[in-house]
Specification:
The protein has nine helices and ten strands.
């Protein structure tokens, strides 16, 4: 995700992000996926104040409030300072085997590998790397590395200066712990069914759902409604309001 410092045209967006669709369907019902643009949210900012400013005024009964895991990480302390991270020789060695892409560095950074190893442990990380390669070769499909590693390490981000404005540089962002529990807390506090998302260049991943969401949709159904990445990878739209429409 590329985060910018842009405070123009804030609030609910009624046009789709570039390359995305505003509407999707499920079981014959049509849903609008409205991105909500916010100011640049910085380290340890008051998340409740952000929600009250941008989401609650636009919320309608029956909507689902969706928020990116990155904002949860930034505001709730799920981050590490790069200056305090000790990158081992093993992380620097393993990064040689990670595929590098121009637009998304992924795990092709020793800092990310180190953070992931700290999260899951060295043995499991190495097992996931080797097992992921073998399973990709057998099933001709990527993504097994993240499944085998667990702990939602696909959501680890940061450490790329040109992708973040100054206030967010020098940090690595972790996947929030207990995402379902966080969503339940947000629903109880703000009276909005809540889902936590982690978007990439292609798709959204649902990390957590409050009871108000899981009572209505399975995770697979919610993923179908959110297919693509309607929030986009840039433009400060960390909030999405999902609304059934005629």
């Amino acid at each position: 995700m590329h985060i910018e410092e842009d405070n123009t045209n804030l609030g609910l967006q009624t046009k789709a992000k570039e390359g995305q669709e505003l509407y999707s369907t499920l079981h014959g019902k049509k849903y609008a996926r409205f991105p909500v643009k916010t100011h640049l949210i910085v380290i340890d900012e008051d998340l409740d104040a952000v929600i009250e400013k941008y989401a609650i005024p636009e919320y309608k009964e029956g909507d689902i409030f969706c928020i990116t895991s990155k904002v949860i990480s930034i505001t709730k302390g799920f981050y590490v300072k790069e200056s305090e991270l000790k990158v081992t020789w093993l992380a620097k060695f393993l990064v040689r085997f990670v595929k590098k892409t121009p637009n998304d560095p992924g795990f092709a950074l020793p800092q990310k590998i180190q953070v992931a190893m700290n999260e899951v442990g060295i043995p499991r990380f190495i097992f996931a790397m080797i097992g992921g390669v073998i399973m990709k070769y057998i099933f001709r499909k990527p993504g097994y590395f993240y499944i085998l590693a667990g702990h939602n390490i696909a959501a680890i981000d940061g450490f790329v200066p040109h992708m973040y404005p100054e206030p967010l540089r020098g940090y690595g962002f972790l996947a929030p712990k207990n995402p379902d529990g966080i969503c339940d807390e947000l629903e109880a506090k703000h009276k909005m069914p809540t889902a936590m998302l982690d978007g990439n260049n292609v798709e959204n991943i649902v990390l957590g759902m409050s009871k108000g969401v899981s009572d209505r949709f399975s995770k697979e159904e919610l993923l179908q409604i959110l297919k693509g990445n309607p929030q986009g990878q840039s433009g400060n739209t960390p909030i999405l309001l999902l609304r059934e429409v005629e």
